[in-house]
């Protein structure tokens, strides 16, 4: 295959999107069932309406706030438990099964429990995001720290770095950083899903709430118009982290 | 045994003095696990400005001995005295050079060399100058901003050497530093090391598994044996310096010492083999 320059790739992507949208528009016009498949023009009108009414901005702000708080909490918890299971075999064998179980359990299945324990409030919604995102962070911290290159620890100690905490920051965490960023990237994707789940199944709010409430009144064009920024948010977040990740790698 | 201890002739205090060093390792985490005796009562005195090489079969405790000299690990018994003071932690008098280079892959050459000075909280401007000076000393001034993975093994170890030199330590502790470097580059680096150490009056402890290298570089060669972890012999190498100016390997002293060491090393390996078979 011929390798394409960045510009050429971008151009091809744009042509692809334009083609896809044109086919969609024409098909929707011919099909003429806007409830099932609204035309692109209707979706764009709906999007514009959501923007100028301020509805989208408010919802987006609410969602991003939830996402950031949830991710931060997940990072803190992931670091604490990741460090613990990296340093202690006993802790690893005791805790690992629960984290693995949490990793494979769909977040939506946990919503009823969160509802019973924490109610509809902000705490409950944050918890859903945390449950969705924490495990990849935790596992990447654990594996990053476990593989810490022993000789670099010796190097640091021989040149005067003293104590576990300074060693953690000068060597262990820095050496693990590429792995940590990969974990964070995975976690961010899952956090977006967790966020949408929390906003649609716990209490309506944010982008998730927008989607759910327009779905309930069968405004499919508005549903699409709300899904769009949600996907965009996820893509931006994940690719941003991926970009940082590539800059931190060394070979 | 011939040619054992040379007493400190001129300076008075030795650079490093070890007495009664014992070290055992426990093989796994549980309490009644098997114990490995790595060093069994090592006494050794290294003179200031001396180049001591250590050779011995693998697993005889060379690395363990060096790590104890660096205070990276503590002996179970015995004392380590550096320039007259008992030590238990790494300090600025000793610097290590590692077999696998030990460079931080995320730091540039300059940042790697500056690292020990930053850890020791030297003023920023000064650290940069010192580091650049030592990078020049090992001939890498063009590669200051390169990352380790962009350099050959020989160049990486030059960085390792520059880093050790930049600390200003009097004592260099080197664990098979040229073991992972191709033969020709290794010879060049041996010459450079001899030149630098002579110019700067460094005390060097240098582990190697290469007999030629051991004899070529050394004022004294320490032969360890799997007794386990004991000093089998210390032998002086009376070859004139600078050794870069003539063919050391053709010198009869080189041939004598090398031949002697090889017989001893061979005997040790054979004794070991027969013990294992019994
Ligand atoms: N951290 C350690 N834990 C357990 N055993 C060790 C450790 N370090 C060294 N040993 C053991 O001590 C002995 C000496 O090892 P070492 O000093 O590395 O030998 P050498 O460098 O001469 O090859 C070996 O039997 C080795 O297995
Ligand atoms: Mg070794």
Provide a descriptive summary of the structure in words.
The complex is a heterodimer of chains A (251) and B (278). Chain A is mostly helical and 251 residues long. Chain A has one domain (53-250): MetI-like (MetI-like fold, Orthogonal Bundle). Chain A has helices at 6-31, 40-52, 55-87, 89-104, 107-118, 122-146, 150-158, 164-201, 206-216, 220-248. Chain B has 278 residues and is α/β, with parallel strands linked by helices. Chain B has a domain at 1-88 and 218-278: Rossmann fold (3-Layer(aba) Sandwich), CATH 3.40.50. In chain B, strands 6-7-8-3-9-10 form a 6-stranded mixed β-sheet, sandwiched between helices. The longest helix of chain B is centred in the last third of the chain and has 26 residues, at 252-277. The interface between A and B is medium-sized, with 20 and 26 residues. Bound molecules: adenosine-5'-diphosphate (ADP) and magnesium ion (MG). Residues 62-63 of chain B line the site of magnesium ion. The site of adenosine-5'-diphosphate (ADP) has 12 residues of chain B, from strand 2 and helix 1.
Question: Secondary-structure blueprint of this entry?
Answer:
The complex is a heterodimer of chains A (251) and B (278).
Chain A (H helix, E strand, L loop, with lengths): L5 H26 L8 H13 L2 H33 L1 H16 L2 H12 L3 H25 L3 H9 L5 H38 L4 H11 L3 H29 L3
Helix pairs in contact in A: 2-10, 3-4, 3-6, 3-8, 3-9, 4-6, 5-6, 6-8, 7-8, 8-9, 8-10, 9-10
Chain B lengths: L15 E11 L8 E12 L4 E5 L6 H8 L7 E6 L2 E2 L7 E4 L11 H11 L4 H14 L15 H14 L4 E5 L7 H18 L2 E5 L3 H7 L2 E6 L4 E7 L15 H26 L1
The structure holds adenosine-5'-diphosphate and magnesium ion.
